[in-house]
Amino acid sequence: MADEPQIIYAIRLFFEIVWMLLRVDFEIIKSLFKSILPSEPKDVNDDIILITGAGHGMGREVAQRFGRLGAKVVCVDINAKGNEETVKLIKQEKGKAFSFECDVTDRAAVMNLAERVTSEVGEVTILVNNAGIMPCKPVLRHSEKEIKTLMDINVNGNLWMIQAFLPSMLERNYGHIVAMSSMAGKMGLRNLVPYCGTKYAVRGIMEALAVELHEDPRDTNGIKFTTICPYIVNTGLCHNPKIRFAGLMKTVDPGDAADRIVDAIRREYHEITIPSDMYYTNKIFQLLPPAAGKLMTDFIGTGLDPHD
After folding, report:
1. DSSP-assigned letter for residue 153
2. Would you give the DSSP letter of residue 134?
3. 245 three-state secondary structure
4. Following DSSP, what letter does each residue of 157-219 receive, concatenated?
5. Burial letters for 78-87: b for 16+ Cβ neighbours within 10 Å, e otherwise?
6. Measuring CA to CA, which residue among 258, 44, 274, 58 is closest to residue 75?
7. I need a labelling partner for 10 at 20 to 30 A (CA). Which of 25, 50, 256, 302 fits?
8. How do 126-129 and 175-180 pair as beta strands?
9. CA distance 83 to 53
10. For each of the chain's 308 residues, which pLDDT tens digit applies?
11. In whole angstroms, how far apart are CA 15 and each of 6, 21, 27, 34?
């Protein structure tokens, strides 16, 4: 009789393990099914989509595409001129766009931005943390100011925007947070040591945030997360790409990358790489011993030479 509570506990634990394994198997099967028959892209016609770094490059490309899909696009950039140009381009195509100037490294300014956007446009439903910089040089040639600025924009900017716009999403149990990481956030690259650190950090922030909301006692199933990991996109950030097998590992056209990003957001994918095959290539690469990985890196010969 004294052992009965332990027996009951063991039986209960056994059934919990079986139930957990069944649920895990179900999610694996569901994921495989979705990879074969992906879900239909969601309609964003009623969404308010805020994009940081919208004044140029990928931010502008993504903003224009969402404008064509009927969303209200809130363009945010520290470069007021470039941001206004993006808004003008969207409006020329009969889209709805709004321009807000903001330094994402300034937490107080970001909080003020959230108040203004909510008051003047409405509640943001999709937040795209796109703003970022990519200085390219050996780590010992980076100044203290360069590294701090890189961390402030690429990492802290994400956190301040999340702190500003997540609360309203939680209140409504509805929203979507998107982060621009990079293949440099999945593998180390020469001349990009601090940058790789920031992009690994972005992936970590998104993964931890998803876990935190999953464990939140409130219902948070209506809030989605997508992390984007592009390879070298020809936007001007990568001045000196070095690619040995250019036919197999070409730089990505900004328009093609933007199409993939918008599609991933609309299908609510958790994480994508651009090109998509790099997702699986990286998984295989991570299984290798470090020395073997270095040999493959030497053979492939892909990377970036310093910008100056």
Report:
1. I
2. -
3. coil
4. HHHHHHHHHHHHHHHHT-EEEEEE--GGGTS--TT-HHHHHHHHHHHHHHHHHHHHHHTSSS-
5. beeebbbbbb
6. 58
7. 25
8. parallel
9. 8
10. 445 688 888 888 888 999 999 999 888 888 887 778 888 899 999 999 999 999 999 999 999 999 999 999 999 999 999 999 999 999 999 999 999 999 999 999 999 999 999 999 999 999 999 999 999 899 999 999 999 999 999 999 999 999 999 999 999 999 999 999 998 898 888 899 999 999 999 999 999 999 999 999 999 999 999 999 998 766 655 555 566 556 555 667 888 899 999 999 999 999 999 878 777 777 777 787 888 777 777 777 666 667 66
11. 14, 10, 18, 28
> What CA–CA distances, in Å, run from 299 to 184, 240, 302, 306?
18, 19, 9, 20
195 has catalytic annotation? yes
Rounded to two decimals, the pTM is 0.87
Is 3 part of any domain? no
| Active-site position among 195, 200, 231, 269 | 195
Residue 112 within any structural domain of the chain: yes
Give the chain's domain count: 1
Looking at residue 27, its amino acid is E
Contact partners, residue 281, CB within 8 Å, separation at least 6: none
CB 105 within 8 A of CB 157: yes
Q: What is the CATH number of the domain that holds 89?
A: 3.40.50.720
154 CA to centre of own chain: 11
Amino acid at 25: D
Query: Which residue reads 């001349």 in tokens?
Result: 191
**Is 200 a domain residue?**
yes
Give me the domain span that covers residue 58: 39-304
Q: Which residues have CB under 8 Å from 37's CB, separation 6+?
A: none
**SS3 for 137?**
coil
